[in-house]
Write a structure and sequence with these properties.
USP_CS, 7-stranded antiparallel beta sheet, two-stranded antiparallel ribbon, Peptidase_C19_UCH, 217 residues, UBP16 hydrolase, Cathepsin B, Chain A, alpha+beta, hydrolase, cysteine-type deubiquitinase activity
C-alpha cells in the first residue's frame, strides 16, 4: 500500500534519534542500524509511477512502450504501531566463505528500553504528546554451542500482573501511567527440568538470542 504523506514528516521519529549516540555492541546500536535512513541509488533506484506517467502519458501506454522511470530515493524502516509485547531476535550467525559461523559476541541490553527513537512521529497507539515508548524486560532465550549443535536455556522473570499490559492486549488501550523502572520480580534460569533463581546482573550478562519486553508506557 502506497501512502501519500507529508515529506517533512516522512522520516521523523517520536524522539530525536540523533541524541542517542548508541554504544557499539548494544541492542540500541542494533536498532539504530536497522532503522537507519538508506539512500537508494544506481541499481537500487526506485520505480516511480508518477515519473513514469509524466514521461509516458496514460497508464495504458506504459506496458507497451516499456519506458519505466527510476529515481533516487530514501528508505527508512520505522515502527508504526508499538506492540504490547516486543520480541527482538538477534542474528547470531555470519557467513565464513561457504560456511555459517555462530556469533558469540555479547550484545548489551537494558532492563528498560525506550522505542521512541525508532517509532514514527505519528505512531498509531501512542498518546499525543508522549515522547517515550517504554518496555520492561521479562524473558531471555540463550543458545550455547555451535551452528551444528547446542542447547537452549531461558531466563524468565516471575512478576506481578501488569494492568497496563492487560489493557493493551485485551482492550487495545494505551497506558497513561509513566513508569521508568523495570517491573519488580524474581529472575529464574530454566534449563530443561532445572530451575534456579538468579540475579538480574546474571541475566544481563547472558548471550541473548531472543529478548522479550512488555510495554510499560
Amino acid at each position: 500500500e502506497v501512502l501519500r504523506e507529508d515529506p517533512e514528516m516522512a522520516f521523523c521519529t517520536l524522539a530525536n534519534r540523533e541524541d542517542l549516540n548508541p554504544e557499539a555492541g548494544s541492542i540500541h546500536h542494533c536498532l539504530y542500524q536497522f532503522t537507519r535512513n538508506e539512500k537508494l541509488t544506481e541499481t537500487n533506484k526506485l520505480l516511480c509511477d508518477v515519473c513514469t506517467q509524466r514521461h509516458c502519458g496514460p497508464k495504458n501506454n506504459i506496458k507497451s512502450e516499456k519506458k519505466y522511470v527510476y529515481t533516487n530515493a530514501k528508505k527508512q524502516m520505522l515502527i508504526s504501531l508499538a506492540p504490547p509485547i516486543l520480541t527482538l531476535h538477534l542474528k547470531r550467525f555470519q557467513h565464513a566463505g561457504f560456511n555459517l559461523r555462530k556469533v558469540n559476541r555479547h550484545i548489551k541490553f537494558p532492563e528498560v528500553i525506550d522505542l521512541a527513537p525508532f517509532c514514527t512521529a505519528n505512531c498509531k497507539n501512542v498518546a499525543e504528546g508522549n515522547t517515550k515508548v517504554l518496555y520492561s524486560l521479562y524473558g531471555v532465550v540463550e543458545h550455547s554451542g555451535t551452528m551444528r549443535s547446542g542447547h537452549y536455556t531461558a531466563y524468565v522473570k516471575m512478576r506481578t500482573t501488569n494492568n497496563h499490559l492487560s489493557d493493551l492486549v485485551l482492550q487495545g488501550q494505551s497506558p497513561q501511567a509513566l513508569e521508568t523502572e523495570p517491573v519488580k520480580g524474581q529472575w529464574f534460569h530454566i534449563s530443561d527440568t532445572h530451575v534456579q533463581p538468579v540475579s538480574a546482573s546474571k541475566v544481563l550478562s547472558s548471550q541473548a538470542y531472543l529478548l522479550f519486553y512488555e510495554r510499560l508506557l
